[in-house]
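Example 3.2
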Amino acid sequence: MQYSYVGRREVLVFLSIIFFLSTVRDMENFGWFSYSFILFTAFIFATAFIRYSCDINEESITYHIMWMGLLLYKKRVPPNQISHIKFKRYGWATKGAVVHTHKGFNIRLIDFKPVKLYEELDDFSNKHDIPFIKSKDYQLLEKLGWDRKKQVSE
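Structure, written as tokens:
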């Protein structure tokens, strides 16, 4: 099953529009600095369209980073390349996991929807005998079923 995370687009688009309008309005006062501010605004606007996705199947975990449908980064990690998985709580009631690999970058899976991802990742680690660590805060979220309640209300 494919799981995805889409950033806070509305906030980033709103901020980039505000920055752009204020820069264009005061362009003659700031000179060359306003051009660098426009580039910064364009960067913020572009990051609003980044999407992360994760696929977990029988033989591997695949992680994608896409920008407006264009694949920027793809990493496929078979179980023998995973050193361990660390489950943690991020924020007040957000589950997250970090897949630590032997080579390359670790995979951070935070605030992915649906939250069933973390249960499936737990099953994947048990099936392939991959060691995992669950923080006390994460275990508390599991015990309370907090994310399931949050997902039902959305």
